[in-house]
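Retry 2 of 3 after timeout on previous attempt. Resubmitting structure tokens to design endpoint.
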């Protein structure tokens, strides 16, 4: 087990202090599976209440200063007013996530649909989201295209790529300077024969054609079993094409569970490659975002747990003795190199992270602090009536 020297501890704390992890608005509402959405007491009824919950998470963790929005789930009439509400709560509005998968018109796809009228509708929504981002001060348009086909011959695979490229170009050209388009991928679901953006290579190819403000978004739950995600992360960092993460955890498919629970070792390996590739540097623009839907677990503690899991995995990654690792690698010492990684992984970094929180004026145990705060009891008592927000399954 790696011994943490005072100087190494100071370095790790410094980097962790600068880590920023964005939480998603949809994680605070009711959510579930394709079979059932389980309602919970105290969930938000408005986008403003989602922001309040996100602000509570930031208050307790100190590293979650922004909340991503999903349109139309978070639609309001006054975007500047919503941004002001966030500022008053102590956070900012983050990535804007368009929704082009939850309307009847999108049964055969959105921007890849064979119907030009449907494609126009979907593209107009994407352009609207660019405008919303301008009004909220958001710098990221986070796009997941759920388009695909279920049967061979259902549609022309190549033509769908042409339609995709056309829509992306129109959206990219509309973005103001300083905004980035992050293109997410998913190898299956909701389509089961072909997905139009099924993997990082497809996303990479389209982003490369668009220009430097387009990058790949890696969702950790969107890969086939056995996929080496850390290789993808390393490759994209090397190419300057890693735009950010949607962190979650999965056991079988896109479960959207708390990150680091299904495979904490994978999260450690990912964060090692992120650090190795410069993704934790002060000048890095890699966006660390959570994308989760909490079905049976309480919403706010689940968000806090996800953040602490990312912090602990990052701390372990920063403890890797890179000099010893390089020496073992260059000597062809297979087991020795692996041992260097495992030493860092098996180190208990929880005391170090707790010390960091104390240094930041925070409670060293944010989940226990939340339970003591009375916030959950208050929102359950106050949020009576109205329609609880959810993702509409």
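Retry 2 succeeded. Sequence:
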């Amino acid at each position: 087990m790696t011994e943490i020297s005072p100087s190494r501890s100071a370095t790790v704390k410094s980097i962790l202090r600068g880590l920023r992890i964005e939480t998603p608005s949809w994680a605070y509402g009711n959510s579930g599976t394709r079979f059932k959405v389980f309602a919970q007491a105290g969930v938000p009824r408005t986008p403003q209440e989602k922001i309040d919950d996100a602000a509570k998470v930031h208050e307790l963790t100190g590293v979650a200063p922004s909340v991503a929005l999903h349109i139309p789930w978070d639609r309001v009439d006054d975007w500047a007013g919503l941004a002001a509400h966030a500022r008053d709560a102590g956070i900012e509005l983050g990535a804007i996530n368009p929704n082009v998968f939850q309307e009847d018109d999108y049964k055969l796809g959105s921007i890849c649909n064979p119907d030009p009228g449907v494609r126009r509708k979907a593209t107009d929504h994407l352009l609207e989201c660019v405008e919303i981002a301008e009004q909220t001060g958001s710098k990221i348009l986070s796009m997941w295209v759920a388009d695909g086909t279920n049967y061979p011959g259902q549609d022309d695979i190549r033509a769908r790529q042409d339609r995709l490229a056309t829509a992306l170009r129109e959206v990219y050209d509309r973005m103001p300077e300083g905004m980035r388009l992050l293109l997410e991928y998913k190898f299956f679901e909701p389509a089961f024969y072909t997905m139009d953006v099924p993997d990082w290579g497809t996303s990479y190819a389209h982003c490369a054609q668009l220009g430097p403000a387009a990058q790949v978004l890696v969702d950790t739950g969107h890969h086939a079993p056995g996929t080496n995600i850390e290789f993808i992360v390393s490759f994209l960092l090397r190419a300057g094409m890693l735009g950010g993460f949607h962190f979650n955890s999965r056991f079988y498919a896109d479960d959207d569970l708390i990150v680091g629970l299904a495979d904490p070792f994978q999260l450690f390996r990912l964060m090692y490659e992120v650090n190795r590739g410069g993704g934790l540097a002060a000048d890095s623009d890699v966006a660390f975002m959570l994308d989760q839907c909490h079905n049976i677990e309480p919403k706010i503690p689940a968000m806090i747990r996800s953040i602490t899991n990312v912090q602990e995995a990052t701390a372990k990654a920063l403890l890797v003795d890179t000099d010893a690792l390089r020496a073992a690698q260059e000597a062809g010492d297979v087991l020795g190199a692996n041992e260097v990684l495992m030493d860092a992984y098996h180190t208990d970094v929880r005391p170090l992270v707790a010390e960091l929180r104390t240094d930041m004026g925070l409670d060293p145990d944010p989940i226990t602090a939340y339970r003591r705060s009375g916030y959950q009891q208050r929102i359950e008592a106050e949020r009576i009536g109205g329609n609880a927000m959810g993702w509409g399954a």
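Attempt log closed. The longest helix spans residues 116-136.
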